[in-house]
Amino acid sequence: MDIYEIRRRNLQALVNERFGGKKARLADAIDRQSSYISRCLSSGSHRKRIGEEFARHTEASLGLVKGWLDEEHLDKQAVEETPIETYGKPTSDNELTFTGNMDPWDRSTPIADDEVELPLFREVALSGGGGRTQVVENNGAALRFKRSTLRSAGVSRESAACAFVEGHSMEPILPDGASVGVNTADRQIKDGKMYAIDHEGLLRVKFLYRLPGGGLRIRSANPDKAEHPDEDLDENWPEKVNIIGKVFWYSVLLH
């Protein structure tokens, strides 16, 4: 068996075992087009050979040791013989699919080729400000994102930032401690969309609405309107509210 066939069989095994038989998931994980993966796994005359550069890129993206795709793995035979027509079809009634283990990291972990670090915003107290605060970029703190996640959302690396939600005003959508991704290049208000705003030094994530006469409505998600009522500002709202950007992603840690 030549090296290209070994790589093809191993790549197919990865699709089956780690990505539920879905080539699109592998493509997203390694930052490649699904059509390219399909050509690599094709059994027809248009099959794309898996070369050295693509093999090493795939291994690095998936946390495999260098050369893993070049070696025959004894437990892959049964996987390879699965009919290709069944790939991607549900094999059980499960509603969740785990595609691999989480990869923990800290600031000492080198950033991967398919990742970017996004800055975090935070709220700080002003010295002598009588309790006033200011929203600043939290230098030195960041969240890591897949480049493909930003690409799918249509957000550039330079325009992306992150923030954490504090409090309960946006529950049940964004509970306390949720993290959000913000597109700082998208500040034009679209009614009912979620935005990160600097409201006189207070960092907030809210739904925004335009009002007649140039006003602005700030709305929480929590249905308890007695505690979190709508806030309507007049046409002078830009003096109080700075729109940081539109929320394009959020993540929730369940306790």
From TrEMBL:
Gene3D superfamilies: Umud Fragment, subunit A
Keyword annotations from UniProtKB, A to Z: DNA-binding, Transcription, Transcription regulation
Protein name: Transcriptional regulator
Residue stretches making up the Peptidase S24/S26A/S26B/S26C domain: 130-248
Superkingdom: Bacteria
Originating species: Salinicola rhizosphaerae
A Pfam family matched in the record: Peptidase_S24
